[in-house]
Amino acid sequence: MVGALVVAFFVFAGLYADVLWYDQLGFLSVLTTEWVSRIVLFVIGFLAMAVPVWASIQIAYRTRPVYAKLNSQLDRYQEVFEPLRRLAMYGIPILLGLFAGVSTSSRWEAVLTFLNRTPFGQKDPQFGLDVGFYVFELPFYRSVVGFASAVVLLSLLLVIATNYLYGAIRVSGREVVISKSARIQIAVTAGVYLLLQAVSIWLDQYATVTETGSLITGAAYTDVNAVIPGRAILAAIAVVVAVLFFITAAIGRWRLPLVGTALLIVSSLLIGSLYPWVVQRFQVDPSARTLEAEYIKRNIDLTRDAFGLSDIEAIPYQAKTDAEPGALRSDAETTASIRLMDPLVIGPAFQQLEQFRQYYQFPDALDVDRYNINGQSQDTVVAIRDLNLAGLGDAQTWFNAHLVYTHGYGLVAAAGNQRSTDGQPVFLQSGIPSSGELPEFEPRVYFGEESPDYSIVGAPKESKPVELDYPAGGDSGDQTYTTFTGDGGPKLDNVFTKLIYALKFQSEQIFLSDQVTNDSQILYDRDPIERVQKVAPYLTLDTDAYPSVVDGRVVWIVDGYTMTDQYPYSNKVSMSEAISDSEGITQPLAFDEVNYLRNSVKATVDAYDGSVTLYAWDTQDPILKTWKKVFGGTLKSMESMSGDLMSHVRYPADLFKVQRAVLGRYHVTDPGSFYSREDAWTTPKDPTQPSTTSLLQPPYYLTMQMPGQDAPSYSLYSTFIPEARGQASRNVLRGYLAVDADAGSTDGKRADGYGKLRLLTLPEDDNVPGPGQVQNQFNGDPSISAQLNILKQGQSEVINGNLLTVPVGGGLLYVQPVYVKSTGETSYPLLQKVLVAFGDQIAFQDTLDLALDVLFGGDSGADAGDNAVDPNAQPTTPPTDSGTPTVPSDEVQALLNQASAEIKAKQAALAAGDWAAYGAADARLAEIIAKLLTLTETPQ
């Protein structure tokens, strides 16, 4: 009893803590709705299983023959079972009821969406039913029928066992004798079971439009002409057999239902399996391209609709491959915005230049955003300076970890298209206290991706602050302290609440510490994605939450998706596979196979007080409309979003990744071509990764102007190459997909162009090199290799940044920043060179501006974002580690050009077999390399 009470109190502590957490956040209705739904469904499931099973056992027992002659073995069974009879008759139904209740309660979301379902307003092409029937109703009906079938089947088995145990069913040799009462009960139960199977088979014909076949998802020719009619026939046969069982209950003859059951089994084999196989093998396979065309067209149209691709604009693009002088003049704005700072590479630079103390940290992978600075949109790389309690070392006591070090400080932003003379990021917002060109904002970050598991904040007004705000700087080591003044967590204003949280976090200090007062609050579940997931359990969230300065606050912006796998005729995609790339590999999701996806909600989490706001973004989504009926009042209208917030929301990357995965095949709209897979595409592998990996190249956010746009906009893009045939794929570009990711900056109004997808389709006879080919050109060019070898002096590491593809100059421009990182422990990558390519021509210079001018015949016609960098100037701030050399560009470039000429001379001599010329060229090359080494030698 004591043990049970202790366990019960721990459970209660967890539940009550949840109530306090949701109540403080203003989403208590979400928790109570879920709890009430689960409890009601548990009771329904328990009663729906336990009562019929109990009634079946009771009826079988009470109608048993009193004077039945039992064999000696059954007598022994009865002797053993009789003392346990009452326990079994109640225990078995209760145990089965508990399992059924738990199973039923887990389906609370399906039940609530069924009860609050919203029509899609679109009918499926096979049965003419609203799509909502397949998304909301059919899964519910099939679940109910499946549950009822399980109840009846278990009841039937227990009825047979009970009747056999008490002699109502006797087996004598080859003869089976069944009493009248047992016959009636068994026959009626079997008849009900067969009726349920008839309903199940009837519903299965509708499920054909959501099932995945060998060719498409949805009913193909064989399904429409054999499977669907066959299931209707089998359902009718099952009804007839059920009627035969009811007749047997009345007249007592088992031959008819047994013959009917055998007929049902044979029919299911012939009609359900053999006939569809014959149709497929001898009618469809020989003429599949023709017969399946209608159904492939259904699959193409509905797949594109389900993934938001029906309005995509396909633009034939005759990409130029000749880099002519002045070619970028009409794309000057795009060229000036090309991002050189790779957020996956420059994380160590943020850490070394902006961390300041060991108890701060920056993530390895930074985020990208954009801000309006001096009237111009500026792409930025941003990160939060968050806490790192592990950096406290021996000072990581409970008091320090939970009362003193409670929050991170500041958002750091660097210009995406600029770098300092020595290759460091150009910070637009930095330092402690935070300063820069961004609007003023509250810099304290109590809710972040790396925040402590819990912190206790707040104190009486007259008390001395104990929370470390930020280091004051200088040699004195002074610190600035603060007290949290927001409403960020449940209040610890009484002994009972302190006890609850002491139990939840298994920390008696919460209960005993004199620093925990009635004015204290406890902050926990602080990761922004976790907070949004808890208040919106019906959403699947984007894997990347990013911070922005909005209306004077730092907020995390999180994209939420509604999805289903029951959209008729839409191809199913593994979401975890589709969104995995070189930026991160996603583990399989709980709901992974999807064939309908919408970015229905934009959520924000205030980094100071943790408040969560959900905005209904896709107001036309029927699934979101359904959930709004369930959780009324938790979603705000998009019209309530400020213009400042609008300027930072973006088209989400995970949605775009799924769409590009679908478009690999579904950019083809002709059924014949689709069937033959004549023009299937795939996303190229990330060329900057080792060749042994198969990680895909991620999409990139850039400000650029696509064909069909009047001006540059913040966009997200990806490329396509031909799908692999055999061992490898031809790494030439076939498509370029971009979406307008800029929602504008007007209060409550989304920009007209937001979400517009444009697909540049390149002609098959024009071999524009893909990312893999371009990377190979960069890596294999002798002149570039020689320069890279110089940069690697002192065992420095050369890091290739993201390889960007930009549609400018009538063609496709490749840009790749090259970083150099020395071997010291405190070193970080410095941007030293830029690689560019256009067609088969490449250039490698100190700045993007110089590289473009070299690439386009001496004058590209546009200035890049780093045109203010003087490549010959000395660094204003020396690198932390002296292993990174500074290269005098003019003399080195001249020697490199000579080296390139001698390498080509060696290759020509080798091909001609002229060993004398080969030796002379090799000697000259050795002299040039010696001069280069002398010229670039790093002083010790």
Automatic annotation (TrEMBL):
Membrane-traversing stretches:
41-61, 87-108, 144-166, 186-203, 232-251, 258-278
Q: Where in the cell is it found?
A: Cell membrane
Q: Which GO terms describe its cellular component?
A: extracellular region; plasma membrane
- The UniProt entry lists the main location of this chain as membrane
Q: Which Pfam families match?
A: UPF0182 (PF03699)
Q: Which domain of life is it from?
A: Bacteria
Keywords in alphabetical order: Cell membrane, Membrane, Transmembrane, Transmembrane helix
Residue ranges with Low complexity bias: 879-888
Q: How does it sit in the membrane?
A: Multi-pass membrane protein
Q: Give the residue ranges for region: Disordered.
A: 863-888
The record's comment on protein family reads:
Belongs to the UPF0182 family.
Family annotation (PANTHER family): UPF0182 PROTEIN SLL1060 (PTHR39344)
HAMAP family for the chain: UPF0182
Return the protein name: UPF0182 protein EDM22_18445
Which organism is this protein's natural source?
Agromyces tardus
Lineage summary: Bacteria, Bacillati, Actinomycetota, Actinomycetes, Micrococcales
